[in-house]
Write a structure and sequence with these properties.
Elements lengths: L3 H16 L8 E7 L3 H15 L2 E7 L1 H9 L6 E5 H9 L9 E6 L1 E6 L10 H10 L3 E3 L3 H13 L2 H4 L3 E2 L7 H6 L5 E5 L9 E6 L8 E7 L6 H9 L4 H6 L8
Parallel strand pairs: 1-2, 1-3, 6-7, 6-8
Antiparallel strand pairs: 3-10, 4-10, 5-8, 5-9
Length: 252
């Protein structure tokens, strides 16, 4: 008569094979990404899923809000936000050492509520006059917003326009404020204005006052092995045309 313990061991072994990660199922990754890259990241991660079989769960926010979430312990395999914030989280031990990989860069654009006259922004002086003439101005709580606030100071108009400035919380879309009539003129990353409804995208800031933000990826300290492959895919040659059609540029 066969030993019962052998049957038990066989069942246990079978269960271990079924439960083993990587056997019969693909890994699942979590990516927290900045809103400025939402459109291309959705397309690129979908392509990655099809080519690799690894499902990717996406979560979104502004650079400052995501930085706070990760700093407070939210786990993710990949985090994509402004490069200085990635460096900060790596230095603090919140993300894996030497895991930064630049993904894209983008400049600051201007938009108005749909149907409003498009102001001249062909020069720094023209932008200054457009801002002075606007009844209300919105700018983000993020890299583009920090830059625009400093730009107004350099132009010498910060105090003059202070009462008509609107700055929503991190992650909010300036296009939404414009579409709702809460501001007449808005500044944000080009990729967050280019294809939004309810607004008219006027164009990028002129070269002499333009500011480029680099967005980078960092790996979580307990990231799955597949996370590195995802970042390599997002920074590979196939990403460039997808970035460009959404107002972004490859980082190089």
């Amino acid at each position: 008569m066969p030993c019962p313990c052998r049957a038990v061991l066989a069942v246990v072994a079978a269960l271990m094979v079924v439960a083993s990660p990587g056997v019969g199922r693909a890994g699942e990754l979590k990516l927290i990404g900045v809103n400025a890259l939402k459109e291309p990241l959705v397309e690129l991660t979908s392509a990655f899923e099809k080519s690799s079989g690894h499902k990717t769960t996406l979560a979104w926010g502004g650079t400052e809000a995501i930085t706070k979430r990760v700093d407070e312990g939210e786990a993710a395999d990949v985090v994509i936000i402004a490069a200085p914030n990635i460096d900060k989280l790596i230095a603090e031990g919140k993300l894996a050492t030497e895991s930064r990989a630049d993904v894209a860069r983008v400049g600051v654009g201007m938009a108005v509520r749909a149907g409003q006259p498009n102001p001249d922004i062909s020069s720094a002086e023209a932008v200054k006059q457009a801002v002075l003439a606007a009844k209300s101005i919105a700018y983000s709580t993020g890299p583009s917003g920090f830059y625009v606030a400093e730009l107004f100071k350099k132009m010498g108009i910060a105090d003059h326009i202070a009462a008509k400035l609107r700055q929503p919380p991190s992650g909010a879309q300036i296009s939404d404020l414009l579409a709702r009539g809460e501001a007449d003129l808005g500044f944000q990353q080009i990729s967050e204005l280019l294809h939004r409804s309810g607004i008219d995208y006027v164009g990028p800031l002129p070269p002499d006052i333009q500011n480029m933000t680099i967005y980078a990826a960092g790996l979580g300290r307990a990231a799955a092995p597949e996370a590195k492959a995802l970042v390599e895919f997002l920074t590979g040659p196939a990403a460039a045309p997808i970035l460009r059609k959404t107002g972004l540029e490859p980082p190089g």
